[in-house]
Each structure stands twice: as structure tokens, then as C-alpha cells.
Amino acid sequence: xxAHGKQKRQTTASIRAxxxxxxxxxxxxxxxxxxxxxxxxxDLLLVGDSLGMVLYGMETTVGVTLDMMAAHGRAVMRGxxxxxxxxxxxxxSYQESKEQAFRSAVRLMxxxxxxxxxxxxxxxxxxxxxxxxxxxxxxxxxxxxxxQLVNIAGGFRSLGHSDEEAAKIHRDAEAxxxxxxxxxxxxxxxxxxxxxxxxxxxxxxxxxxxxxxxxGQVLVSDDMLGLFNDFKPRFVKxxxxxxxxxxxxxxxxxxxxxxxxxxxxxxxxxxKPR
Length: 274
Ligand code: KIV
Description:
Blueprint: H1 12-16, E1 24-28, H2 32-38, E2 44-47, H3 51-54, H4 66-77, E3 84-88, H5 98-112, E4 116-118, H6 126-134, E5 139-144, H7 150-153, H8 163-178, E6 183-187, H9 191-200, E7 205-208, E8 216-219, H10 221-224, H11 242-258
Helix pairs in contact: 2-4, 4-5, 5-6, 8-9
This protein binds 3-methyl-2-oxobutanoic acid.
């Protein structure tokens, strides 16, 4: 809290400094009204490329574009006064070269006002992470299950079951953290591996499907609100079940319109008496 009683705005530096002290609370946000509701309760809001699936009905995140991320990043920034805001670099906007990654990141930061960007990848992205952070772009890493690689991986499944897989995720996390990432998302990873990574990294690990051993947690907000019901992975807990409420409201509205009950007198403008 500040001297005026308002919550202080979180930054990538303050998130990094939470390592070993406080758990980091993170959710995704894609729109202004939802960002406004989540902001007071979260340290970090992620404008995730999961918006392709959650908002646009895509099968994967591969079709998400920089234009989409910029538009939703701007929308979220309009609703935030407390949380640190990170926008995902979408597939194809950073993997070609570190220069391409820098251009894409600068575009997102300048057009949205966000605090930094997230990119998926481990050892192979370390040089890019170092290039960006050395030039003023804070980077949120993302290792373990990487949804943008779905076409190589052949689907989504938890990782770290074999020694080779576990060692690879560990190397990936260390590579991006050493390259300068201020925090690292660890997705879909078995608990012992998440625990080891969390113990060895100097920056916070933010888990999604990666056990309570991580320094913080992130969920797709529509999943935890029960609004995105296309699939319900084991790691999601529904803190609310909003879909039936929305369906019921639509049913009631339809019935009242069809029966001429809505709009009622109180919803209707009448000419002012002359
Ligand atoms: O796109 C996204 O929402 C994410 C998080 C779930 C980590 O990458």
C-alpha cells in the first residue's frame, strides 16, 4: 500500500523480488472489464495467447497474431492500476531471430503500455531473452509444456515423467532465467521437477499444472470462472461456475422478450411532459 492507501503498482522488478518471500498471484485477462475485476487481487495479469482458444474459438494458439495481442493488451491496460501486465508474443513473431523478437516486443510495449512480454522456449531462446533484456524489454519465460509447439509435440500432455524430459525442462528453465527472464512459467510439469526448478532458480517460477511447489500460480481466468468449458484439465479448479448463470440469464431474457414482458415501464423512455 502507498501512503495514500492505494495499492502500489507492481512491476517486473517487484515480481522478481517476491522470490522466497510471497507467492505470486497471476491470472490471464483479455478485456477491460475483466482486467478491472481481477486487478486488485493479482500481482500479475497475463494477456495470454490462450485468447485465441478462449475468445476466438481456435483449436490452438498457433493462429494468434501480433495485431490480436496488441488490441487485447491495450484493452487490459485500460482496466489496470495495480497489477504488472505482460503480453504474450504470439507464434511466429519471435522465433525467426532475436531482432524479429525485439521488433515484436517493442511494438507490443509501445502500442499497449504493458510491462514486458512472455515467450515460450528454453535453451534455444536464451540468446533472444538476453538480447531483449539487455535492450530494455523485460521477459517472462515459459518452459515445460509449450502450447505453441503443439504441432511438433502432437498434443498436450504433462511432461517430466522420464529422466531425459525432466533434465531438459530443468536446463530450459535455467537457460532463460540466466539469460535475464524476471520470472518463468512452468507449465504441465510433474511436481518433483517443478520443485527442483523452483529450488535452483533465482527468479520466481509461476506454475500452471505444475504443482504447489512453484513460487506462484497462473490460471486461464475463463477456466477458473467456469466460462470456458470446451475442456477441463486436471489442474484447473473452478472457483466459480458462471456458464449456467449466463445460459439462465439468456433463457430468462428470451422468454421475457417473447412474452412482451421486457422492456417494462421502468426500462422505457417517455416524452417529457410539455
Ligand atoms: O497463453 C496463456 O494464457 C499462457 C498461460 C496459461 C501461462 O501462456
